[in-house]
Structure to design on (98 residues):
């Protein structure tokens, strides 16, 4: 990801601290959206994150790491069954960034 415009890119801004709190941005079409996140316990498999979009006050609960069960609360996911939040966090987790 990242090199092949105009696709989306995600990058960590701040690695998770001792409480699991960090931040990342998603770049898309020349726009940057910044998010803070906090890892939260996920008892049903995969990894859970509370993701807060800066400047909008929007909070999503995102779950990744289990392809059958990725989930997010945003409208995109509700409509399409996938979204930039699950794709982005899954990519960061695969890279070992989280
Ligand atoms: Zn989403």
């Amino acid at each position: 990801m990242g090199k092949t415009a105009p696709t989306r890119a995600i990058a960590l801004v701040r690695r998770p601290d001792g409480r699991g709190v960090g931040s990342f941005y998603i770049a898309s079409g020349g726009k940057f959206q910044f998010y803070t996140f906090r890892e939260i316990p996920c008892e049903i498999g995969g990894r859970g994150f509370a993701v807060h979009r800066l400047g909008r006050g929007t909070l999503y609960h995102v779950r990744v790491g289990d392809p059958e069960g990725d989930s997010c609360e945003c409208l995109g996911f509700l409509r399409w069954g996938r979204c930039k939040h699950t794709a982005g966090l899954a990519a960061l987790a695969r890279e070992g960034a989280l």
In short: Helices lie at 75-80, 84-94. DSSP finds two helices and five strands in the chain.
